[in-house]
Amino acid sequence: MTTDNLHHSRRGIIVPFTIAGVVLVVWTAWWFYLVQQIETRLDAQVEALKQNGWTISHAGVTTTGWPFRARVAIPHAEIVAPSGHGLSAPELVAEANAWNPDHWVVVATDGLTLARAAKGRVGVRGDGLRFSVSHLRERFPDLRVEMIRPVFTAHEAAEPFPIASAERIQFEARPHRENEDADAVDVLFSLQDARGRPGGPVEGATRQGQLTLRLEGVVQEASRLGGPNAAGVFSAWTEAGGRLTDVRGELIAGESRARILSEGLSAGPDGRLQGDLALNAEAPGAAISGLAGAQEGAVNRVGAAGAAAATAIQGDRPVDLMIRFRDGRTWLGPFALAPAPRLF
User: Fold this and answer.
1) Burial (0-12, 13-18, 19+ Cβ within 10 Å), 150
2) pLDDT tens readout for residues 166-204
3) Which end of the chain is more exposed for a tag (fewer CB within 10 A), N or C?
């Protein structure tokens, strides 16, 4: 082999390694820059929230994941809004691909505790507790919350939680699909195979069976859903005329089943839901009579018993019902069943 050929052979070996080395150096520099930006923005966001009345505390934050991921571990995290709602966890872990820091997934690795203001705290454990957010630069980012086989345990002296466990809980929010420029967000809530707490209204309505609920709709005036204040996340939204429109869904409670439809729901000054829900129900009497027999909870047992008797004459035939939320109560015809759900 001549000297020229030997030099050419060596260059052929060295050049690829040189290119790979340059790429590695550039990528590593990008990764450390990204990590620095993440930590800086996290600190700035925490300080901004604290100045707005939030309570936020955590132990030392660590960032790892080189070369392809950014992984932020936040031990002993507690985040509570001025309204008293929030969460705490032994550890929260947030991850994003280094080449796409616009999509984050946050995991509660060892369960979490939900703070419910005056109602007290409830512990949540499960096979997966995840929150993801993407398209952070858009007007409305995509949000997704997922709980896989969660189990709920109310803390001592706290109000009982409506359900004891579920197979899966999902919540999704994204810009309105039909008009992304509208001040509106599409939302989806799914509760699959939930079981009520012993003696509670969910257990009663399902006759110790399971509850499945799927609802979707459009949140109007979505830009008013800013950070929670002392009155709650829905307060400013309600004052601005915020409504939930085009509500569609399905409810399965034990042997009872219903399709759900509403053109518009809102919240009153007291934060309780108001508006009408149309139901096309199959065997509704079983669920309503079971609700009347609930041993605990804020159910109006007399009203529920009257509603059960009124629907019993339909037998197993499908029946059209109208649930009305008004005056802070949930009404079926002339019968008050329970307090209306409260948004804030």
Assistant:
1) buried
2) 999 999 999 998 777 788 999 999 999 999 988 888 888
3) N
